[in-house]
Amino acid sequence: MAFLARTTKPDFAADAFFIATPPRASWAAAPTAPETPRTLTPPSAAVGFACRRWRALVQAAALIIAILTSPTGSDAAAIITIIEEDGSVVARGTGSINTDSLITSSSSFALEPGGLFGTPPAVRVGPAGDVTLGRSESLSGPMSIGPLAEFVAASEGSGDRFGVSFFLQGPPVGTPSISVPRDYLSGTPLSGLAEYEGESLASLGLTPGTYVWTWGSGDATDSLSVIIRVPEPTGLAAGAAALLPAVLVRRRRSSAPQKLLGTPGPAC
C-alpha cells in the first residue's frame, strides 16, 4: 500500500514529490478469529412443559368463552337458565316452542310473576297473566329439579309467560305440561324473565344440573331445557379472554429466533 505525500525537506526541490511507503507491519490487517457458527439449542423438557401448560390454558379459555357466548336465541328449542346474581336468583328464558303435537288442555290465569316448584318440577318465567297448558302422551322429562316442596312465586317477572309445570287436577295429578302465552303461535320467539330477590339456589332447594323435557315426533319434535347452574367466579370470562393475547405474544417471542435462522422452532 502506497500513497503520495508532499515533502517539506530542504534538500529536495520545493515542488518535488516522493513515494512514502508505510512500515511493512501496517500492510496486513490484524488477524481475526474465525466466526463461530450459531447453533440452536434443542427445546428442553422445561420448554415442553411450558408449551403444554399454555396449550391447556388456551383450551380452557376457549371452552369458557364458548360456554358463556353459546347461542340460546329464539331459533333454538326453549331454554330457561337459572343462576344466582347479586344476591338474587334470576331465571331467563329464550327460544321457541313447537305446539303442533301438544294438546291444549286448559287455560288459566297465573296470579304470580313466574314461579318454581321442586318435586314435581315446575319452572315458569314472565309476568302474571293468562297461560295455556299443553300436554302430550309423548311429553316426558325429569320428576324433580330439587327438594323444594312448595310453590315459590317470583318477586317480579317480565316478557313472555312460558315454562314447564304439572297438573294439580285431571289429567292425573302431577302430569307434566308445557305452558305458553294464551293464543301463542307455534314457533314464535319467546323471551321471559323471573327474579327471586334475596334468594339463593340453596334457599330455594334447587339442585344444579340440566333438565330436559321432550315431546312430539318427526318435524314436530321439540324440547324445553331448564339449566340450573352455580355462578361463575367474578371476572372469569374477562380473565379467560385476557389469556389469549398473552399466550399468542409468548409463542411469537419464543419462536422468533428460530425463524430468523431459517430453522423451525419447537411447536407447542
Highlighted features:
268 residues, 3 helices, 15 strands, 20% helix, elongated
How would you describe this protein?
This protein is an alpha+beta fold and 268 residues long. It is 20% helix and 32% strand. A hairpin with a 4-residue loop joins β6 (115-117) and β7. It starts with a strand and ends in an 8-residue tail after the last helix.
Rounded mean pLDDT is 75
* Shape, per Cα inertia axes: elongated
Alpha plus pi helix count: 3
- Order of strands in the sheet with most strands: 5-8-12-11-7-6-9
Given helix and strand content, the structural type is: alpha+beta
Strand segment tally: 15
- In angstroms, what separates the terminal alpha carbons? 57 Å
Sequence of secondary-structure elements = EEHEEEEEEEEEEEHEEH
User: Helical content, roughly?
Assistant: 10-25%
Using only C-alpha atoms, the radius of gyration works out to: 39 Å
**What fraction of the residues are assigned to beta strands by DSSP?**
25-35%
Q: Low-confidence parts, pLDDT < 50 over ≥5 residues? A: 1-21, 69-75, 256-268
> What can be said about the biggest beta sheet?
7 strands, antiparallel
List the helices and strands and how they pair.
Layout lengths: L2 E4 L10 E4 L24 H24 L9 E8 L2 E8 L7 E8 L4 E3 L4 E4 L3 E7 L16 E2 L2 E4 L2 E5 L9 E6 L8 E8 L3 H4 L4 E7 L6 E8 L6 H25 L8
Parallel strand pairs: 3-15
Antiparallel strand pairs: 1-2, 3-4, 4-13, 5-8, 6-7, 6-9, 7-11, 8-12, 10-13, 11-12, 14-15
Helix pairs in contact: 1-3
Describe the structure in brief.
With 268 residues, the chain is an alpha+beta fold.
